[in-house]
Write a structure and sequence with these properties.
Elements (H helix, E strand, L loop, with lengths): L5 H14 L8 E2 L1 H8 L3 H13 L3 E4 L3 E4 L4 H22 L5 H13 L7 H18 L3 H20 L5 H19 L3 H31 L2
Antiparallel strand pairs: 1-3, 2-3
InterPro entries: GntR_C, TF_FadR/GntR_C, Tscrpt_reg_HTH_GntR, WH-like_DNA-bd_sf, WH_DNA-bd_sf
Organism: Jingyaoa shaoxingensis
Pfam family, one: GntR
């Protein structure tokens, strides 16, 4: 690692391992382990962990180490409460800043997903780009940083829940398509409402998965 970017690179590598569940929720890691894995000193590791703690990805446990935070039903509820406050608002107030060319780009993608199988990895990449489009349009660093924190948790949840059903992917892309149709018609109220409905459906899907997991574990 280059000296001038040790802090940032340490942060990005540890965060990537957490988001991609290389360090699964509940894992206890230590500064010594991270120093060995990243081949850096304690200072950039500690600074990276401080940032990750503010993003609710780790909890520093005195004399025990660093715990990768779990994703509970309460955590998931807070995540979607935040998204429901931010994303419909972003469309309603700032969606008009986005060009029609960008909207048409996503329209063509989501329309194609209605007639052909959706590859999950590709879908989630497009999904993140689409949602981020509205957040970036706000040009509000507070909203952008908050959304970044929330999106990291959503990425972890996707990996932990395994492959989504093709039915859910189909309906999700159709929900996205409805949003784009409304924005192309400059019907911002309807677009914001469609985004809210999409987020509620997404929340229900993840809640259903987590409830099944809890019921499974309780029978073991």
């Amino acid at each position: 690692m280059a000296k001038q970017s040790l802090k940032q690179q340490s942060y990005e590598l540890i965060k990537s391992n957490i988001i991609n569940c290389v360090y699964p929720p509940g894992t206890i890691i230590t500064e010594d382990i991270l120093c060995q894995e990243l081949e850096v000193s304690r200072t950039p590791i500690r600074e990276a962990l401080n940032r990750l703690e503010t993003e609710r990805l780790v909890t520093v446990l005195p004399k025990r180490g660093i715990e990768v935070t779990n994703i509970s039903l309460n955590e998931l509820n807070m995540i979607y409460e935040t998204r429901l406050l931010i994303e419909p608002y972003a469309i309603l107030k700032h969606g008009c800043k986005i060009s029609q060319q960008q909207y048409l780009h996503f329209y063509r993608i989501f329309e194609s997903y209605q007639t052909e199988p959706v590859e999950e990895t590709a879908y989630y990449e497009v999904d993140e780009q689409f949602h981020q489009l509205f957040i970036d349009a706000t040009e509000n660093s507070y909203l952008i940083n908050t959304y970044q924190t929330v999106n990291s948790q959503i990425s972890r949840t996707r990996i932990l829940s395994g492959r989504a059903s093709q039915d859910r992917l189909f309906y999700s892309t159709r929900e996205h398509l409805d949003i784009v149709k409304h924005v192309l018609s400059n019907n911002w109220d309807a677009a914001a409402q469609a985004m809210e409905q999409h987020l509620q459906a997404s929340k229900s899907s993840y809640f259903e998965y987590m409830m099944k997991q809890q019921n499974f574990l309780s029978t073991q």
